[in-house]
TrEMBL record, chains A, B:
Keywords in alphabetical order: DNA-binding, Repressor, Transcription, Transcription regulation
Compositionally biased spans, kind Pro residues: 212-221
The protein's name: TetR family transcriptional regulator
Domain of life the protein comes from: Bacteria
Biological classification of the source: Bacteria, Bacillati, Actinomycetota, Actinomycetes, Kitasatosporales
Organism, as annotated: Streptomyces hiroshimensis
Length: 221, 221
DNA sequence: ACATAGTCATAACACTTGTTATGCGAATGG
DNA sequence: CCATTCGCATAACAAGTGTTATGACTATGT
C-alpha cells in the first residue's frame, strides 16, 4: 500500500536526521516543524504523519542523540590511565560529528534546565557517565598510575574538566583546535598522575560556611 | 511631567530585574514579553515604552548580567595562588544569586551558539576572563606557588574545570553542594600546585603517543 | 488654570507556531 | 479491475509571538 515498501522505519530515521541537522545549525530555539520540513524537502504533513506531536519528535531526536553517543566508535585503550584518557577524549569535540553532537547537547541544557523532568534526566546521565569514569579511575589507581584518593571525587573533577573544555571549544574553535584540546587534557591528566603533596583529607571548610583558607598546600607565609 | 519623578532609570532597572527573574526561572526559551509583563505586574505597553524592541530588552538584560558579574563583591585574596583560587570561586554557583546568574549564563549558550555575533561576544568574554586568570597564574608562578609551564595553558585548563563544574552543579545541586564544589576546586588546585614530573612515573601512554582521533577540521559542515 | 509631555493600559496588527482536517494519488489485495 | 489503505501535500485553524497605534491619566512648567 505505501508508495515505497517497508520504509516506515527508514523514513523515521530520515526525519530524525533532518531534526539533527536543524538542531546542529540553530539549536533548540530554532527547532520548528517548518524548519525540519524544508530541511527535509517536505511539508509538515509528512512530519505529523510519523510523529503525532512535536514532543514525540524531539523525544525521538534525543533518543537518536543518546543512541549515537552510545554507539559511536569508542576509542580502544588498555586498562588504567589510558582508558581514562580515552573516555575523556571521547567526550571532546575533536571531529565534526562530535562537534555537532556537543553543540546539540549544550543547546539542550536551556530547555532541560527549564523542565525539572528533563533536568533530572540530564543529571542522571551525567551521574552514570561519572560512575563509569570512577571505575576506570579506580583501576588506574590499582595499577599505581594514579595516586590514592576518592575515585568519585577524581572522576567528578575529570568530568568537569572535560565538560568545560567542550563549552570553550564550541565557542572558540579557533582557539581550541583538536590538538590543543588533547594537549590540555593530557596536561590535566599529568597533573592528576603526579603524586599530590600531603594535605589534610578532611576539608577545613566543614565547620565554617565556605571560603576558608587558601588551598591545602601553603608553601610559605 | 512623569507620573513619578526621576524614575526613568529606576524603572528600566525594574524591568531588567523582571527579565532577570523570568530568565532564571524559564531560560531564554521562556522569555516572552507577556511573561516579563506579568512578572512585573504590568502590560507589554510598559515594556515597549522603555525598550523599543525585544532585542534591546535582552541586550540590556545581558548588560545587567555582565554588570552584576563585574560588580558583585569579589573575594579578596592576597596575590599568588590564593588570588587564582578566589577568581575561580567567584565563578562557581556557591550562592543563590550566583546560581541564578550561572543558570542564565548557561541558558544564553543556546541562543549564542545560533548567532555568530553573540557567539563571538561570548568567546571574547571568556578570552578576557582567561587573560586575567593567566596573569594571576603567572604571578603565582613567580612566587613559586605553581610550577613552571605556559600560564595561558594553565589558565585555560582552570577555566575549563570551573566551567564544567558550574554545569554539573546546576544540573545536580544535591550532588554538588557549595562545600563539595570548593573541595573539588581545592583538589584541582592542589594537583596543579604539586610539581609535575616529566610524565615518567608509571604512565605508559606518553603525552603525545597514540591518538586515534586525527586532528581534522573541526566546525565546518 | 491651562497646556504639555511623559507614563502606561488597551487593543489591534501581522506573523509564526503546533495542530488538525481534507483530499488526491499510488500501490496493493481480493 | 476495483476497492482499500497508506503516504503525504495542501490548507485551514487556534494560540501565542513581537510590534505598533491610540488614548486616557497625571504630574509638571508657566
Amino acid at each position: 500500500m505505501p508508495r515505497t515498501k517497508g520504509d516506515h522505519e527508514a523514513r523515521r530515521r530520515d526525519v530524525s536526521e533532518a531534526v539533527w541537522r536543524v538542531l546542529a545549525a540553530h539549536g533548540f530555539g530554532g527547532l520548528t516543524l517548518r524548519a525540519v520540513a524544508t530541511e527535509l524537502g517536505a511539508t509538515t504533513g509528512l512530519l505529523t504523519h510519523y510523529f503525532p506531536a512535536k514532543r514525540d519528535l524531539v523525544a525521538h531526536a534525543l533518543d537518536v542523540l543518546e543512541q549515537r553517543s552510545a554507539s559511536r566508535p569508542r576509542r580502544a585503550a588498555g586498562p588504567g590511565l589510558p582508558a581514562v584518557r580515552a573516555a575523556l577524549l571521547d567526550i571532546l569535540p575533536l571531529t565534526a560529528e562530535a562537534t555537532d553532537a556537543n553543540r546539540i547537547w549544550v543547546s539542550s541544557w536551556d530547555v532541560a534546565l527549564a523542565d525539572p523532568a528533563l533536568s533530572g534526566d540530564h543529571a542522571r546521565r551525567y551521574a552514570q557517565s561519572r560512575g563509569k569514569l570512577r571505575d576506570l579511575v579506580a583501576t588506574a589507581q590499582e595499577l599505581g598510575e594514579l595516586p590514592a584518593g576518592d575515585p568519585e571525587l577524581i572522576a567528578a573533577g575529570a568530568q568537569s574538566f572535560a565538560l568545560g573544555l567542550v563549552v570553550q571549544a564550541l565557542f572558540a574553535p579557533a582557539s581550541f583546535p583538536p590538538q590543543r584540546q588533547v594537549e590540555l587534557l593530557d596536561d590535566y591528566l599529568a597533573s592528576l598522575a603526579s603524586p599530590r603533596a600531603a594535605m589534610s583529607p578532611a576539608s577545613p571548610s566543614s565547620s565554617r560556611g565556605e571560603d576558608p583558607a587558601p588551598p591545602g598546600r601553603h608553601p610559605g607565609r
